[in-house]
Write a structure and sequence with these properties.
Strand order of the largest sheet: 3-2-1-4-5-6
Distance between the termini: 27 Å
Largest sheet: 6 strands, mixed
Structural class: alpha+beta
Strand content: 35-45%
Number of helices: 3
Number of domains: 1
Shape: globular
Order of helices and strands: EHHEEHEEE
Helix content: 10-25%
């Protein structure tokens, strides 16, 4: 199983308009892609949220976010809420959303 560090995220336009709102339902539905460490074209490899979920569930890849303050690896997990799947970092005692603190992926 590959272990990959998430470097960036892409969000839908509606998420960008409301990023000042910390509403879990909005956050989960609007991360569209993640970018992880890779050497493909010299930058992060970008995959869809659905592909990330599939890789986690099929135990192909493990993804994590590095907490810059503590240098701890915070793993991602798949959540299935009312038939809708999304990813989040496992609870780490910090109220900050580790995924949303990442920079926007370049195209």
């Amino acid at each position: 199983m590959n272990t990959c560090k998430i470097k960036c995220i892409s969000k839908s336009k509606s998420m960008k308009m409301y990023e000042h709102m910390i509403n879990e339902d909005i956050i989960h539905e609007h991360i569209t892609h993640i970018g992880y460490d890779g050497t493909l074209r010299g930058g992060p490899i970008k995959i869809t949220l659905e592909e990330a979920i599939r890789r986690i569930e099929d135990k192909i890849s493990r993804f994590y976010v590095l907490d810059e303050k503590t240098q701890k690896k915070i793993p991602l997990e798949v959540i299935n809420e009312n038939g809708k799947k999304y990813i989040r970092t496992m609870p780490d005692g910090d109220k900050d959303n580790n995924l949303l603190l990442l920079p926007e992926c370049l195209s």
